[in-house]
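User: I want to check something. If I give you two sequences, will you return the structure for each one separately, not as a complex?

Assistant: Yes, each is folded on its own. Here is the first sequence with its structure:
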Amino acid sequence: MSARENGTDFLVGLVLGAIVGATVATLFTPQRGEETREALREKGAELKARVDEVASKVAEELRQRGQVVLEAQRARLEQALEEARAAAAEARAAAEEMRTRFLQRELFERGESAPEG
């Protein structure tokens, strides 16, 4: 696990811990019913805002990581394609060389030309 992942995990844990702690403190603080409901609404709005913020940060980090992986895979694919093209060119050249030698030998055996090399 990388330091970056640990940082994200810590941030998520910190936010969730703070939210749970605030909610528990609100529930156990002696207040009238209306005050408690209002406090819970406020805490709920704060919770939603914090969760949205953390979710946005995590989503952005995941997008960035995905982009890095995508770029690395694209580079590997391009390298593999270049190697395949080079191998295909070598195979064509070797096949052409074999064809030329074969034709020269055929012509020599018919007496139409002298062999080369």
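And separately, the second sequence with its own structure:
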Amino acid sequence: MAVTLVQGAVIGTVRLPLFSSLAQRGGVIHARTQAFVVLALALMVHSFCSRHRTRSVFSAGFLANPSLLAAVALSGVALAASSNCRCPDGSFRPRRSNVRSG
């Protein structure tokens, strides 16, 4: 349990300053998207670390679970597609936010 709390604190410690920095430079919409991408990628990496209670990911092996590899790969493709989508009909286009940056 303590390890999970530490990992969550590290994810939050990385994500919040990133959001703050990007909100000042590129706007809130861009900052939200990038903060979501960082969180999603961190959770994909975390899934490898959470496979075994007593063995590390290095001793258990990265390639030992092909189902996990497929799920992470599919999630990565979906994340890349959804965070970079420029659809002509306007779907997946971020809505304007009423939050002012700066």
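Because they were folded independently, the notes below concern the second chain alone. DSSP finds four helices and no strands in the chain. The radius of gyration is 17 Å.
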